[in-house]
Amino acid sequence: MKDLYTEAKNVLPNSYSRYSNFKVAAAIRMKNDAIITGVNVENASYGLSNCAERSALFSLYSLGFRKDDIKEILITTEQDDFISPCGACRQVMRELMPDDAQVHLANNKGEIKTILNKDLLPFAFTEDDL
Ligand code: THU
Predict the structure, then answer these.
(1) Whole-angstrom distance, CA of residue 67 vs CA of residue 50
(2) Centre of ligand 1 from the C-alpha of residue 27, in Å
(3) Which residues have any ligand 1 atom within 6 Å of their CB?
(4) Residue 54's closest CA among 94, 18, 17?
(5) Rounded to 5 degrees, what are φ and ψ at 17?
(6) Cα 45 to averaged position of ligand 1 atoms, centre (Å)
(7) 37 to each of 8, 17, 46, 68, how far by Cα in Å?
(8) Which spans in the chain are helix H?
C-alpha cells in the first residue's frame, strides 16, 4: 500500500487546481502490478473540471486496460482529513472498476481508510438497468 501512496504523492504537484487550490491525486494498481496515476484537472468553466479518480481511470482505459485488470485505487490530498470521492466519481468508478475493488482513502499523514467500491454507491444505476 505504501507504494501506491508514494506514487499518488509524487503526482500530487501535477494537480491543475488553480480555482479550488485543492489538489487531489489517485493511483490505481492493476493486476499486472502496473500503477496508473491521475490528478484533478480544472477549467475556468468550473463544471468541466475532472477529478483525479476519473483522470486515472480514463488514462488506464485509454491504455487498453479494462475493469477486470484493476485491483485497487488509492486517493489522497494535502489535507488532514480523508477525502470522500464525489458522486460523479462513484458512478464512474462503479462502472469502470470491479465491485469488490478496494478504495483506499489516504490523508496527508499516510493514514488510510479502506472501503469496497460497491459500498461507495449503494443501489447504483448500472448497465444492468438498461
Ligand atoms: N476532486 C477530486 O479530484 N476528487 C474527489 O473525489 C473530490 C473532488 C477535485 C475536484 C476539484 O478539482 C477539487 O477537487 C475541489 O472540488
Answers:
(1) 20
(2) 15
(3) 17, 20, 22, 24, 40, 42, 49, 51-53, 83, 85-86, 89
(4) 94
(5) -130, 50
(6) 15
(7) 7, 16, 22, 17
(8) 2-11, 52-62, 87-96, 117-120
* Residue 105 confidence class, pLDDT cut points 50, 70, 90: very high
User: Rounded to whole angstroms, how far apart are CA atoms 84 and 120?
Assistant: 9
Instruction: Using the structure block, give the residue that is written with the C-alpha cell 487498453.
Output: 64
Closest residue by CA, ligand 1 atom 1: 51
pTM of the model: 0.97
Q: Which atom of ligand 1 is nearest to the CA of 15?
A: 12
> Of the listed 7, 42, 53, 72, which one is catalytic?
53
CA-CA distance, 45 to 32, in Å (whole number)?
Answer: 37
Q: What is the pLDDT of residues 9-31, one digit of tens each?
A: 999 999 999 999 999 999 999 99
Question: What is the reported pLDDT for 22?
Answer: 98
